[in-house]
Amino acid sequence: MFKSKKLSKFSEISHGFFNKNGGVSGGIYKSLNCGIGSKDKKNNVKKNLFIVKKKVSKKSKEIFLVKQIHSNKFIFLSKNAKIKNRSINADAIITEKKKIPIAVLTADCVPLLVFDKKRKMIAAIHAGWKGAIKGVINRVINFMLKKGCNRKDITVAIGPSITQKNYDVKLDFKNKFIKKHKKNKIFFKNINKLIYFDLPNYIKSQLKFNKISKIDMINVDTYDKKNNFFSARRSLKSKHADYGRNISIIMIN
Predict the structure, then answer these.
(1) pLDDT at residue number 127
(2) pLDDT at position 22
(3) 250 with 15: CB under 8 angstroms?
(4) N or C: less crowded end of the chain, CB within 10 Å?
(5) Using an 8 Å Cβ cutoff, are 38 and 242 in contact?
(6) What are the residue boundaries of the structural domains of the chain, listed by start?
(7) pLDDT exceeding 90 applies to what percent of the chain?
(8) For 70, how many CA atoms within 13 A lie in the half-sphere containing its CB?
(9) Per-residue pLDDT tens for 206-251?
(10) Tens digit of pLDDT for each residue in 24-42?
(11) Helix/strand/coil (H/E/C) assignment for every residue in the chain
């Protein structure tokens, strides 16, 4: 498990970015696969989620997850919210509820964990390139501001994800981002006739655009085998039929 130094300063919250170590799954899902939507045995995934939950808090309720669809949609859990787990299609969760761990699943995409220290509000965001270009980060930050959060009180940890050196893309992919904004060309690099995209720094730029200055970037590449993360792109190259999912989690104690 990786932690953000900046988020670790706050005793009011618990958090963690988990890699694939410490679970019960086997084969291509070895071992801490938290992907409910994967083809892994459901019982193993449930056990893995319980292992994660215990590490964050022994007394908390089950981990709240959504059905991620690479969108800019989010869900807000108010103090009295009664929403069933995984009943909503979304890519971010915002809450002020205590003792309810919220989490996102990734396998190369960027997980973000957000905390406003004064308003006592948290968010977990799944930002792949599709969600990022559609503005999922802007939408979450703007909603939190409407709910009484303040930019200067917000800390964001950008979790482990695929880095530029392992993220080669096609020209039409690059053109989508340039069309959105010409300045986006700085996130692309040409090496040996291939184009490489810097997703984590693109996401960091969106936080800066929203005037968020307290940013902790955990520069760990999920594609690099030695870091022990599930990676969709690495699984695809190995011709695996499926892949496990890493979990990133945050909770108000």
Answers:
(1) 98
(2) 97
(3) yes
(4) C
(5) yes
(6) 5-161+213-252
(7) 94
(8) 7
(9) 999 999 999 999 999 999 999 999 999 999 999 999 999 999 999 9
(10) 999 999 999 999 999 999 9
(11) CECCHHHHCCCCEEEEECCCCCCCCCHHHCCCCCCCCCCCCHHHHHHHHHHHHHHHCCCCCCCECCECCCCCCCEEECCCCCCCCCCCECCEEEECCECCCEEEEECCCEEEEEEECCCCEEEEEEECHHHHHHCHHHHHHHHHHHCCCCHHHEEEEECCECCHHHCEECHHHHHHHHHHCHHHHHHEEEECCEEEECHHHHHHHHHHHCCCCEEEECCCECCCHHHCCCCHHHHHHCCCCCCCCEEEEEEEC
Res 60: pLDDT: 83
Q: Which amino acid is at 211?
A: K
**pLDDT surpassing 90 at residue 117:** yes
Given 3.60.140.10, 3.40.50.720, 3.40.960.10, 3.40.190.10, which CATH number is that of 5-161+213-252? 3.60.140.10
Q: 39 and 63 in contact (C-beta within 8 Å)?
A: no
List b or e across 221-232, with b for residues whose CB sees 16 or more CB atoms inside 10 angstroms: bbbbeeeebbbb
Residues 191, 171: Cα–Cα separation, whole Å: 13
Whether the predicted pLDDT of 59 surpasses 90: no
Q: Can you give the pLDDT at residue 237?
A: 93
- Which pLDDT value is given to residue 251? 97
Q: What is the rounded CA–CA span in Å between residue 161 and residue 121? A: 24
Amino acid at 209: F
